Amino acid sequence: MSPTPTAPPYGTALADGIDPLNTALGRLSAGSTLDALDGDLEQAEDAATDAAVGLRFAVVPDTVADTHRQLYTALERLATDLGEVRSGIDAHRLCAPSSALAETAAAQGLKDTAAALSALAAAGYPATLTAPQAGPVENRALENGAFVRKGRADGHGELTVDNGGGGDAVLTLVRGSDTAYSFYVAKGRTAKVTGIRDGAYDVYFTGGSDWDAGTKRFTRDCSFTKFDDGLDFATTSRTYSTWKLSLRPVVGGNASTTHVPADAFPAP
What we know:
There is one protein chain. By secondary structure, the chain is an alpha+beta fold. It folds into two domains: about 10-120; about 145-265, Immunoglobulin-like (Sandwich). Helix content is about 35%, strand content about 25%. The protein contains five helices and ten strands; from the N terminus they run H-H-H-H-H-E-E-E-E-E-E-E-E-E-E. Helix 3 (about 65-90) runs antiparallel to helix 5 (about 110-120).
């Protein structure tokens, strides 16, 4: 008769569940690309799920039964939280590694897991959990009308942009394949640029919140749009071009727009 297998001691079962999660969380880094971070988040989500399932059926000393129950419940919450961060990336609610990591670090499931592990360690069952390194959730913005790319201002053209959309925006004029002018328009504000040189320009705008001046992108709630019709600026001896654009649907307006993939959007 073969011997009946025995369950591993609780400390071993705890380590077997938490160590893979700890390793997965340690891979999360703001220095990675958003796609790479999404893949690492998926691995961490799977590790949290596996830990929750495995520990739910562990043999637990009576002295830590309640804390153990808090732990696997927290791990289930953590797996859900990590899945929600990934959904936020997919839906362009989170648009940069910094914002995705900030939300991960603030996840209630992560806090609850750390608290349960701390209580278990005090009872003699230590396990390591590495919280991802992340900055706080930020809401950075430029002044209304501030240039992201000023370009040459020795022309006569004028462009006024009314931002009645749901967030701040950066409007970009592209001539040929080069960004010529790019400027910030705060939510609910109007900005005007003068000195635009003559020529035909394609018009793009990106909207969102928390402007990262280093990457020239919004880190949350980002969108990327192009006006289907460009703008022509021309100067004669008596006239020069003045244009006004609205970043919201306008009754009677005829300026249609098209969504642009993020990787095809011109650098502001």
